[in-house]
Design a protein that fits this description.
The complex is a heterodimer of chains A (about 190) and B (about 160). Chain A is about 60% helix and about 0% strand. Chain A has about 190 residues and is mainly alpha-helical. Chain B is α+β, with helices and mostly antiparallel strands and about 160 residues long. Chains A and B meet through helix 2, helix 3, helix 4, helix 5 and helix 6 of A and helix 1, helix 2 and strand 10 of B.
């Protein structure tokens, strides 16, 4: 299933092939989740939005104008559903998650080794303060299974050539946060 | 990712981000399962009534005041049938609907945990109570024209 073109999976699923459908889910469940979470959906809401998007895809399988552009269809449909949920609750899309930055020196003294769990926690805090577009781009770039630059460009409506430079800018912003500085200081030989 | 240019300075940080996301925000298993299971809702031969109007789009920020029962109006359009519904959220969701052109029909309100069946009368009016929050789609089977089978776009209520 890994190398099967998306359009073939869509056509298979439209004809009732459940394995083709499972192939689509495996390839793009991460994309839908990433878009939902990047639009301020709490996990329970992201779950609802995700299910709605997949249910909607089931009904649109035979009607998609361009099955090759499924990543874009999924991203747009997910985004629209998130905006609908947010509007219904009378809230704007949060541009900043209210996570206070690590101020650095108030942790336990002297032990410079960071457990992976601690590092992950610090990175997660810093990540959530990134702009929404940076969060979404990084989530898609780091997806498992990997998405191609073409699929990411399609999903985000970005020219493929701008993905690399934007990735670098987003990582630079992350690197300059207090959390990452703290990790770098505690990790011998690392330069982030 | 063979078509990615390598960016050495960012690779270690990127790995840290990947690890943080894997620990803190991987796609939950039940979300993936639900996505797979969505395939069971496939209806063959039904026409799709797409969302044409959602009063939520007109809502002002003040409409989100807590404690105030709100009514949401939705309209779904298929070539031969329009389904208009009002959703009231006071103490559990009540869906009041109107089929246009008016006609008697069996209306199935489908949601991930099951189906609520309602009957539309001669004037195409129907009502269902206790509709759960979350994804919902209406499947309308006309009793006047048995070949008319219409399903509405799934939407989060």
């Amino acid at each position: 299933m890994d190398d099967t073109p998306v359009a073939d999976l869509v056509r298979g699923a439209a004809c009732g092939d459940r394995a083709a459908w499972d192939g689509l889910v495996e390839r793009f469940a991460g994309l839908v989740w990433a878009v939902a979470r990047s639009h301020g959906m709490a996990p329970a809401d992201a779950a609802d939005v995700s299910q709605t998007v997949w249910l909607r895809l089931v009904e649109h399988l035979g009607r998609l104008r361009d099955p090759d552009r499924l990543p874009g269809w999924l991203a747009v449909t997910t985004r629209n559903e998130c905006l609908r949920v947010l509007r219904h609750r009378g809230r704007q899309v949060p541009t900043d998650d209210p996570v206070a930055p690590e101020t650095g020196d108030d942790g336990p003294a002297v032990d410079h080794r960071l457990l992976a769990e601690e590092r992950d926690g610090l990175v997660w805090d810093a990540f959530r303060r990134l702009s929404q577009p940076c969060q979404l781009l990084l989530r898609l770039l780091l997806a498992d299974p990997p998405l191609s630059y073409a699929e990411i460009g399609e999903a985000l409506g970005m020219p493929v050539g701008s993905i690399g430079p934007t990735r670098a800018r987003c990582l630079d912003r992350l690197r300059s946060t207090p959390e990452i500085s703290r990790i770098t200081a505690a990790t011998p030989g690392s330069w982030g | 990712m063979p078509d990615h240019p390598t960016d050495g300075a960012g690779d270690e940080l990127a790995l840290w981000v990947a690890a943080a996301l894997a620990r803190h925000d991987a796609v939950p298993d039940d979300v993936v399962e639900a996505a797979r299971g969505s395939f069971s809702w496939r209806t063959i031969d039904a026409e799709l009534a797409e969302l044409a109007y959602d009063s939520t789009a007109d809502a002002t920020p003040l409409a989100g005041v807590r404690g105030v029962a709100r009514t949401r109006t939705l309209s779904f359009e298929a070539p031969d049938l329009t389904v208009e519904v009002e959703v009231e959220e006071a103490g559990g969701r009540t869906v009041t609907g109107q089929l246009v052109p008016p006609q008697p029909a069996t209306v199935e309100l489908r949601h991930p945990a099951g189906v609520i069946t309602a009957e539309a009368d001669e004037l195409g009016r129907f009502r269902a109570t206790g509709v759960p929050a979350g994804p919902v789609s209406l499947l309308c089977h006309s009793r006047r024209n048995p070949s008319t089978l219409v399903e509405t776009d799934w939407i989060v209520l």
